[in-house]
What we know:
Distance between the termini: 36 Å
Order of helices and strands: HHEEEEHHHHHE
Strand content: 5-15%
Structural class: alpha+beta
Number of helices: 7
Bound molecules: iron/sulfur cluster
Shape: globular
Largest sheet: 3 strands, mixed
Number of strands: 5
Amino acid sequence: MAQPDHIRPKFWEKYKLGEMTQAEWEAVCDGCGKCCLIKLEDPDTAQVEYTNVACKLFDEATCRCADYDIRKSIVPSCVVLTPEKIAEAAYWLPDSCGYKLLHQGYELPVWHPLLTGGPEAMHEAGASMINRTIPEYEVDEEDLEDYVVEGLQ
Length: 153
Ligand code: SF4
Ligand code: SF4
C-alpha cells in the first residue's frame, strides 16, 4: 500500500480515484475554483446554473480557499469531495473538473497542473476563476440570478 503522501508517476493514468493516495487525490484538483462558486439549482430538473459569486472564503487573487484546512468549520456547507462522492456530485461539478473527468473515463485537459507543472497554463486558458469573482457578502441572495454566467460549467 502506498504512503498517503506518496505521488506515483502518471498515477492519474494508472489508478482509479479510489486507489489514489491522499496526496495523489489532492493533486487531481486543478484548483480552478469553480466548485467554490454559488450555483442555482432548479429543484424540479436538477439543472444547475453557475454564478460568478464566490464563497466568502474564496481568495480570487490566489484562486484558492483562504482557510482550506478548517474550511468546514467556517463554511459548513462546503462539500469535501471523496472518491465515493464524485458520482453523485458530477452533475454540479464543472466539466473541466479533474475528478469528474477521470471518473467519467476522460483524460485530464492539456492545461492541468499535473501535466504542466503548475496552475499558470490553466489560468491563461481561462479555465479558472482567478480574478473574476464577486464575494458572496457583496451580493443580496435575491439578486443571485443576475450573476449567472453562461459557459462556466
Ligand atoms: S471544480 Fe474540481 S478541479 Fe476545480 S477546484 Fe473544484 S474540485 Fe478542484
Ligand atoms: S470553504 Fe473554501 S473550499 Fe469550500 S467552497 Fe468555500 S472557498 Fe471553496
